[in-house]
Amino acid sequence: MLEWKTDLIKNKWLYLLFVPTLVWYLLFAYWPMFGLVIAFEKLNVVKGVFGSQWVGFKNFQEIFSDPYFAQILKNTFLLNLYSLLFGFPVPILLALCFNEIRSVLFKKVAQTISYLPYFISSVIVCGLAITFLSPSTGVVNAFLGMLGFESIYFLQDPKYFRTIYVVIGIWQGAGFSAIIYFAALSGISPELYEAAKIDGANRWKQLRYITFPSLVPTILIMLILSLGNMLNADFEKILLLYNPTTYETADVLNTYVYRQGLLNSNYSYATAIGLFQGFVGFVLVFGANWLSKKANGTSLW
């Protein structure tokens, strides 16, 4: 207790800077968790949370007995799986490429261009995608027409939606995510490379035996965090791109919760789905963290 008081007095300004963040999390992250009780009720808006009928796990039984739930669960998982398989390595490769550039000016310009899409609104990004993929005026179909192919209705055909979603996600987020890996690369001691050069290691061997192993802890941490979002697709992007003709592959848990909760006013059912998402995410993060700690010694806690 005495040590805690001493630390508080010694670092009082740091703790003071932390107060706004703590208040934000308490108000907007932890206090709203009280609303999860709605998942076990049949919410009556007039009676409120305390006056509504308690139904226990009935909402969850309805979720798992709904034949459409399996489809949206599959869509959510596959969209995140493809994003992880194809999108996760891109920032790493991008950071490694930046690290090999010797011209400081060119490196800064390339980095700036790569992470600028991250700051573009999803509305604009999806608008660009819709314009480029338009069957009549889109650049992609114009190019296909030059090659002799017929126009393709990309955003009306379910089989193209997952590819479009993953490609847009990579383009928008790869450059910004690469900053984390590039920061990790900047922390590698130059003496390791000098010693490797003396021992006759070429650029490939330096990359293989020094650069990449130094990135492994950061890669594992980012992978663990990514696994926690395996059932949490980019709601805004999907909402802007999908339509009833692409529900077969585009409808995910987030959009289903939106329709059930806000459009159909089925708040208890939507909350139960959200709680299920959070529980699965927790299990995935906890399991991935445990495996990483056992295998490599790297973990979040």
From TrEMBL:
Transmembrane segments: 12-31, 77-98, 118-144, 164-188, 209-231, 267-291
UniProt KW keywords: Cell membrane, Membrane, Transmembrane, Transmembrane helix, Transport
Segments forming domain ABC transmembrane type-1: 73-288
Membrane topology: Multi-pass membrane protein
Pfam families reported for this sequence: BPD_transp_1
GO biological process terms on file: transmembrane transport
GO cellular component terms given for this protein: plasma membrane
CDD domains noted in UniProt: TM_PBP2
Location in or out of the cell: Cell membrane
Source superkingdom: Bacteria
InterPro entries: MetI-like (IPR000515), MetI-like_sf (IPR035906), UgpAE/MalFG_permease (IPR050809)
UniProt record similarity statement: Belongs to the binding-protein-dependent transport system permease family.
PANTHER family referenced in this protein's UniProt entry, alphabetically: BLL4140 PROTEIN (PTHR43227:SF11)
Protein name (record): Sugar ABC transporter permease
Organism: Paenibacillus elgii
Upper taxonomic lineage: Bacteria, Bacillati, Bacillota, Bacilli, Bacillales
